[in-house]
Amino acid sequence: MRVILAAVGKLKDGPERALCQRYHERFDQTGGQIALGPLKLVEHAESRATTADLRKADEAQRLLGAVAGAERLIALDERGTAMGS
User: Fold this and answer.
1) Cα–Cα distance between 51 and 4 in angstroms, integer?
2) Coil, strand or helix at 51
3) What is the pTM of this model?
4) Which of 6, 60, 62, 84 has the fewest CB atoms within 10 Å around its CB?
């Protein structure tokens, strides 16, 4: 199963990018054993639209374009509710 991680905002060079790269490599190494991957990371620059609503719409369209044709879509939001096991 192909896995795409699409996000708005670009990671800057530094510890966060290094950590992301480390987990990306680990995912690719172990995911294949359970038919996942390879992982594709798609970073979109933040929208430069003039209003918040236009920025959200622009960014949403670009995110949806990155995952067009996906069988399953999981969206994460920092304001979401944590799910238990």
Assistant:
1) 28
2) coil
3) 0.73
4) 84
Q: 38: cis peptide before it, omega within 30°?
A: yes
Run of H or E including 65: helix 52-66
| Contact of 31 with 39, CB cutoff 8 Å | yes
Share of the chain above pLDDT 90, in %: 48
CA distances from 1 to 23, 41, 56 (A): 18, 15, 29
- Measured in whole angstroms, how far is the alpha carbon of residue 63 from the centre of its chain? 8
Residue labelled with tokens 């991680």: 5
DSSP characters for 5-27?
EEEES-PPTTHHHHHHHHHHHHH
Residues 6+ apart with CB under 8 A from 51: none
